[in-house]
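Supplementary Note 3. Input sequence used for the single-chain structure prediction.
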Amino acid sequence: MKKQVIPAILFAMLSLTSSAQDKKSPKVGADKNTQGCIASAGYTYSKLKKDCIRVFEQKIQLYEVAPTATYSSIVAVIFSDDKATVELFIPKEKESVVLKRTGKKGNYIWKNENYSFTGNTKYVLKKGVKVIFKS
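The predicted structure, written as discrete structure tokens, is reproduced below.
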């Protein structure tokens, strides 16, 4: 009888330990945000595309002008189809920033109360009057 009880107790203890560990560590890919994007796979939500994207795969990227860390950050840029708005993925912002176009053709500027973005092939992003990223 003792021979049957001891293995049963050990099995029960291992089962409890295993299920407790499962509850502590999330499953890979289970970190979807409210839009369904999996951050651990590098995805974030794009307001303009209305889909999950990887910012590091975007064609237009700006580079930090004066990095304060041992690495340099990038800003990914996505234009709307008509180029009336631009979406910027700025590292220190909680979510992407969408700027609206103003100005005349050939001299457009996209801006909001904090940021301004200019350029046709070479781009510049300013916060206030300070250039923080450029291509």
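Helices lie at 2-24. Residues 17-21 have pLDDT under 50 and may be disordered.
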